[in-house]
Amino acid sequence: MAQSSSEGVPHLRRVGTTQQLVVKGRPFLALAAELQNSSMTSAEYMESVWPELVATNINTVLGCVTWEDIEPVEDKFDFTELDRIVLRARDFGLHLVLLWFGSFKNVQGISTYTPAWVKTNPRRFPRAKLRQAGGILQTGDVLSIFHQEGCHADAKAFGRLLAHIKKIDGEDSTVIMVQVENEVGLLGDSRDGSVAAEARFDEAVPEELIQFLTRDWNLLHDDLKVNLKHFKGVSGRPGRSWEQVFGKGAHTDELFMAYHYAKYLDQVAAAGKQAYPLPHYTNVWQPFGDGEDETNVPVVAGGEETLEFAPSLDFISPDLYLNHYASCCRKYRHRNQPLFIPEQRRDEYGARRIWTAFGSNQAIGVSPFGIDTVESATNPFTKHYALLKSIATIILDAQTRPDDLVGFHIDELAADGGDSFKPVIKHWGGYELIIERCFVFGKPGPGAGMVIHLGDARFLLIGWGFQVRARSLSPTSTFTGFLRFEEKQVVDSDTGQLRTLRVLNGDETRSGIAAMMPAEDPDYGGFPICVTIPARTMIAELAVYSIQEEDEI
């Protein structure tokens, strides 16, 4: 996995099984958001957007740089608009992740952001062919990856872009990452049906792919193995076509395309890395799932295997809208690659889930899409990011000890009263902690947060809508109780220093039963006494103790 060794350039740093983004020598938690597709093509348009981004507690903005804008005429580059945008982001104290809309954009991987001189010259830049019923070939709105002219021109433009960013921003690190293309893939067919593509499909499978799958079989993601069942029987017989090696079907077509897309993207990314070695990634659209259904299996799951053939990319990122969020996060942490979610839902449903990404999957950042068309006052991320911003240093430290950290999200009860949230159980410091919905007298509400094991029998609780119960794991324990429960306030967000705002007890612990982190407006169900008082800071430290048989008279 490619990483920069220069401390002055934003880069990835591995700590155990965790990788963190380092900006200006310090670990950085990207509380990010992506703009609408074409918003960042105009510095004038962005003038009204920057203040709203700051008010939403965002620290990183994902926005496009399009090939057609920076190279409208071949070999004549214009970065005027981009320069204005970088300078204004810097003025507002915001970082940028540049999204390179080059050869491919959107889930269809279409080529609509290519310059006119590419679009109008299909002889030099051939299109992919989609196979239709009756053997008819339809010209796709997408460059074929089986011709080198498009790749070479794209790589040249991308390299010039990164060289320019280094020149204007190398000392400031306003730009901290770049995305190479966007959601590459072919929609409308399982593979390109052009003459060049068919010839490549009939050739022998590249030996490097055969060797990789054979060598790393036991390390492959289980989902990928499902789609490679046929391979096991022929893995030692090189010189065979794709269908002979992998079997006939869409899974082989898509594996064929994934391999060649990886090679294409690597050439583009390599040009950028050579010019300015920022972290480079690409994003992946997920196959449609059924809400929180975990059963939808992509052909190539997790992304890490793709990096074998695109070593100039640092990681692969999932766009998460309609799939099981926690499951996808785990898949894209496969083999300890860093997790960054460049696109996801921007509503409260999506906002709750980011705690699972940061807490249980050590995400370096998350990014709701379309942030410039929702006001900060009504944006649910404003609240979530405010809390995360105040404790980012604490989270970054805890992420280096992933066994001591868990994040979770709690959704609304179903219409029939069903509860999709299952209590989270962790064994830490000789105790079993049970994390569950916060008790209320009326209808329980949603919540989100994380719990960090601070060592021994001390725990930091962050968030709302949940409670924690504890039980000693000692076989001789006769009682487990709360030694201290304190609401904490951030003194210094840069250092993570906290101080005690108030000591909680009594009603806030249900008389010693559960350490409660209530929501802002708990339902009392008509009960006349307001017991579950909302926490002001949504940060609390809990210390527990137990009594052993030998301690008692």
From TrEMBL:
For molecular function, the Gene Ontology terms on record are: beta-galactosidase activity
List UniProt keywords, sorted A-Z. Glycosidase, Hydrolase
Keyword Magnesium found:
no
One example of a Gene Ontology biological process annotation:
carbohydrate metabolic process
The domain of life is Eukaryota
Q: Where is the DUF5597 domain?
A: 381-515
**GO CC terms of this entry:** beta-galactosidase complex
Kindly provide the name given to this protein in its UniProt entry. Answer: Beta-galactosidase
Say which species the protein is native to.
Penicillium diatomitis
